[in-house]
Amino acid sequence: MSWNEVFLKDLDFKFAIEIIVRTLIMFTLILIILRLTGKKGIRQLSIFEVAIIIGFGSAAGDPMFTKDIAIVPSVIVLVTILLLYRGITWLACRSEKFESILEGDPQYVIEDGQFVLDNEDLTFAKDEFLAELRQQSIEHLGQVRIAVLETNGTVSFFYYADDEVKPGMPVLPKVYAQKSAIIKAEGEYACTYCGNVEHINAETHTCKRCHKHEWLKAIKTLRIT
């Protein structure tokens, strides 16, 4: 194996300078185009907008280091993508149905301190969602009245007042790891699949809501803000 082939190949000094110039030009164009889209930050990007960003990257990346690709055709691609984006967002602003098809709809994840079961479109991993709960200083599901997964990937939480907090499934890692199908002592337990809380006194028990049989001791601590 030749290290020269790996790191340099046919690169010469003149083309190295050209790569620097091409990169500066294309990167500046990307910043200008993205500014023209009107987006403020990555947390606001939808799936459609992520696709637009990928298109920008593909169009802008190759001219930075490929001799055979000129800058002007890439600029045409960038402008076309920008006009497409503007046109589609214009349609989305005037048609809720089109916006729903393009962006999707907000989805309820938690209602009344329990996971929503009848939403087949939810595809996130439970561990990922539990991490989101912890980042919002949520210790158990009984503190949450409603959680909505927004179309941009963020989660909106609506909490119970302190005097309305109910027993719920713990979400802290060390506690959640203690889930078991065996009930060791009588008390209130939360189903780890759906969050349903029941008073259980048997060694094994099937959840009345989702028919699973893995449980955690429910807790009723208040949320500290």
Automatic annotation (TrEMBL):
<dbReference type="Pfam" id="PF04239">
    <property type="entry name" value="DUF421"/>
</dbReference>
<keyword id="KW-0472">Membrane</keyword>
<feature type="domain" description="YetF C-terminal">
    <location>
        <begin position="94"/>
        <end position="172"/>
    </location>
</feature>
<protein>
    <submittedName>
        <fullName>DUF421 domain-containing protein</fullName>
    </submittedName>
</protein>
<comment type="similarity">
    <text>Belongs to the UPF0702 family.</text>
</comment>
<feature type="transmembrane region" description="Helical">
    <location>
        <begin position="71"/>
        <end position="93"/>
    </location>
</feature>
<keyword id="KW-1133">Transmembrane helix</keyword>
<keyword id="KW-0812">Transmembrane</keyword>
<feature type="transmembrane region" description="Helical">
    <location>
        <begin position="15"/>
        <end position="34"/>
    </location>
</feature>
<dbReference type="GO" id="GO:0005886">
    <property type="term" value="C:plasma membrane"/>
</dbReference>
<keyword id="KW-1003">Cell membrane</keyword>
<dbReference type="InterPro" id="IPR023090">
    <property type="entry name" value="UPF0702_alpha/beta_dom_sf"/>
</dbReference>
<dbReference type="InterPro" id="IPR007353">
    <property type="entry name" value="DUF421"/>
</dbReference>
<feature type="transmembrane region" description="Helical">
    <location>
        <begin position="46"/>
        <end position="65"/>
    </location>
</feature>
